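If you are new to this repository, start here. Below is one unmodified record pulled from the training split, so you can see the exact layout before writing a loader.
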Amino acid sequence: MPEFIHAQSKEDYSAAAELFREYAAWLNIDLRFQNFEAELQSLDKMYTLPNGGIILCKKESLFIGCVGIRKIDDESAEMKRMWVKKNQHGKGLGSELLHKAIALAKNCGYKKIKLDTLNTMTPAISLYRKNGFVEIPAYYHNPDDRAMYFERLL
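And here is the target side for that same chain:
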């Protein structure tokens, strides 16, 4: 049975960085426009309470998934880097991570949660829509024309 933990230690944030890198490699797009390398160097500052956090999914001794919540402004959180290793797909872990991310954003006092995804990620889009996310105009510039933006009121 997988367990879900909030990143707190240096080791947790290191595991999150590895999962973020794996996700970025799978995306196969250049994330420099999001300052991805700088993000990886400051995970413990960018994704931490009271403004957010990283939820890790662990099975036995292996980290198999993650999701991050970070502050956009006083009312809005952004969900980033939701990822489940490919060999763990189809087990409901993405849905569990999403629900835990929504709960974290609520606990941080946000009124809404935003995210971006690619229009090719149809299972993720279906999951977001099923959980109350609606498509919105871009809330930041993404040079990839496949980008879609979603929001959910909390």
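Two things worth knowing about this chain: The longest helix spans residues 10-27. The beta strands are 3-6, 53-59, 62-71, 76-84, 112-118, 134-136, 147-153.
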